[in-house]
Amino acid sequence: MNEDYDVIVLGTGLTECILSGIMSVKGKKVLHMDRNSYYGGESASITPLEDLYKRFGIPGTPPESMGKGRDWNVDLVPKFLMANGQLVSMLLITQVTRYLDFKVVEGSYVYKAGKIHKVPSTETEALSSSLMGIFEKRRFKNLLVWAANYDVNNPKTWDGMDPKSPMSDVYKKFSLQQDVIDFTGHSLALYRTDDYLSKPCIETINRIKLYSESLARYGKSPYLYPLYGLGELPQGFARLSAIYGGTYMLNKPIEEIVMENGKVVGVKSEGEIARCKQLICDPSYALGSTSKVGQVIRAICILSHPINGTSNVNSCQIIFPQNQVNRKHDIYVCMISFAHNVAAQGKYIAIASTTVETGDPEKELKPALDMLAPIDQKFVSISDIYEPTDMGTESQIFISRSYDATTHFETTCDDIKDIYKRMTGLDFDFSEMERNKNDIFGDAAE
């Protein structure tokens, strides 16, 4: 291990594995280490089911009704991929898609007044949605048409709303009521809070376009999910790194990040030092250079039934907008099942998550857990969210952010692009990504 590297990466979370792959492809000499014996870090998929019981301290073994333990791959951090989103673009440019198979998530739903409704995201769906009255439907349809045609370079398409106008003014312009504002902002634009209302409307317009374009790709929902669980994603990027000469070491205790004159020069493990010019790591390896900014509660629920009100789909997302549940943050539910090779036949995994606001976090998930009942087995975790306080300019240590409560990877990709820019001084370039965009997923739509 006593070698010199351009980049050392600590931790095998998705963020770290993607950056490791990208740096290897760019010709950097990369060493990637993790104290764990498995890939994925905080975002691992746990198999067999017995390991999940042990991890959460649940006594005994899973009942026979759960099937074989090896049939299970349970994500610790539930997320879907937007079909037209940034992570899919990263998978395409690096061709990691050759190691993965995807399925389209079958539905996207929103909670309103005690019930869940399918999220309308096309003009046709808007006109038939049970979420709105007839006049609201027309106004919402007008908003969707306006957003789809909005061109930042063509003021004629703005209809009086320049890109810097606050989004709250756009809602006023279309005379939308609070319920419609809730599902537009939280289920289409996928904001976690209402802070976006005072920000430039172009940000929300772009998010609505991303949702609509992702939906148009396959039709059932804008989301994709990999067969065998999210743990396949970091392993795919690890393979990519290895192909380009990256070295991987699991089960490696990290004793010290070695510094000289305030700058990283290497990593000490088992008495040996590997030297490097730059270091990437998850927050757990550099807690002294991070600040805790909140907590996320997640409840992994094993079910023997699909979720009520979803037309018995095998996978879906449900968003509980903050105003509908008297909170400051949304509640999310991701549901996948045996159809994705992550559960035994006839079983479903629904994971509820939200940002913690009180001293009784599990109670905060009650609206979601009530909807999932009856629950065969529940695994509850509370995770601290860390952000780096050191941007790496001097130290050349680049720390990722913890995974938030959202059910998609867009915020994770923003973090990857941010770290890449701080490391290289260059913007992450998506220009090559158009190569195989239309045929890369093959039968994902099946």
Entry keywords:
alpha/beta, seven-stranded mixed sheet, Guanine Nucleotide Dissociation Inhibitor, domain 1, 446 residues, single chain, 12 helices, 19 strands, disordered C terminus, phosphoprotein
Give an account of the 3D structure.
By secondary structure, the chain is an alpha/beta fold. The chain has 12 helices and 19 strands. Strand 1 (4-10), helix 1 and strand 2 (30-33) form a beta-alpha-beta unit.
Coarse morphology: globular
Question: What's the mean pLDDT score?
Answer: 92
**The first-level CATH class name of the domain at 119-219:** Mainly Alpha
Strand content: 15-25%
CATH topology of the domain at 119-219: Guanine Nucleotide Dissociation Inhibitor, domain 1
The percent of residues in helical segments reads 25-40%
Q: List how many beta strands DSSP finds.
A: 19
The low-confidence parts are 432-446
Terminal CA distance reads 46 Å
Rg over CA atoms: 22 Å
Instruction: Please identify, by name, the CATH architecture of the domain at 119-219.
Output: Orthogonal Bundle
Main sheet properties: 7 strands, mixed
Fourth CATH level, the homologous superfamily of the domain at 119-219:
Guanine Nucleotide Dissociation Inhibitor, domain 1
Class of secondary structure makeup = alpha/beta
Number of helices: 12
